[in-house]
Amino acid sequence: MAPTWTQWADAVVPPLRERFTNVLLERLPPTSCVLEIGCGSGVPVAALLAHHFDHVHGIDISGEMVRHAQAVVPTGHFEVGDIAQADYDEASFDGIVAFTSLVHLPRDEQVKVFARIFDWMRPDGLFVASLGASDFAESVEEDWLDTGAMFWSSYDAETYQAMLERAGFTIELAEVIRQKEPAGNDVAFLWVVARKVG
């Protein structure tokens, strides 16, 4: 899936991953340690982060995606893993990004992951993410991008905002934005910028 996904993701319009990655680039110092959840092939997000920050980490459940990311961003540290099972130390990261990745977890797992992300962040750290905007327990497309089955699970936008606040975050931006996928599908995600005030 790695090369197919990269080409597909680059064709989604508007290209919001770059816009929201810039939130971290503009607001965190170069010495920051940042994590990308669902780093995929490393482009464009991890590559952009590595141009600005000294310490870039990425995690993805696909070994092939991680191999691509490490090749593209040789200065980064990438690992194969399930974010629902990941174990990072408290206050490890100044910034964490998760673009269209957490919606591939069952939504009851997403609740737990938000609390863990909050613990992993340092005071005044930023969490920037795209989350679902529709309420459905699960959906499976059996042959997504002609590469295999893909799972989705989501709450509505208001529920996600409440969940983030319950986890301890202060929401600085929350906006449902529509995008068009390469096949012409119109999709909506909740894009958020949340801070761990402290």
Structure report:
The chain is of the alpha/beta class and 198 residues long. Helix 3 links the parallel strand 1 and strand 2. The protein has six helices and nine strands; from the N terminus they run H-H-E-H-E-H-E-E-H-E-E-E-H-E-E. The chain has a single domain, classed as 3-Layer(aba) Sandwich (Rossmann fold). The strands form two sheets. A seven-stranded mixed β-sheet has the order 3-2-1-4-5-9-8, sandwiched between helices. Helix 2 runs parallel beside helix 3 and helix 5 packs parallel to helix 6.
pLDDT under 50 segments (min length 5)? none
> Can you list the strand order of the major beta sheet?
3-2-1-4-5-9-8
What is the straight-line distance between the termini? 40 Å
CATH architecture: 3-Layer(aba) Sandwich
**Average residue-wise pLDDT:** 94
Q: Share of helix among residues?
A: 25-40%
- Topology-level CATH name: Rossmann fold
> What gyration radius follows from the Cα positions, in whole Å?
16 Å
Query: What is the H level of CATH, i.e. the homologous superfamily?
Result: Vaccinia Virus protein VP39
Give the CATH class: Alpha Beta
Number of beta strands: 9
- Strand % is 25-35%
The secondary-structure class comes to alpha/beta
What gross morphology would you assign?
A: globular
- Give the tally of structural domains: 1
Order of helices and strands: HHEHEHEEHEEEHEE
- Give a quick account of the main beta sheet: strands, pairing sense, barrel closure: 7 strands, mixed
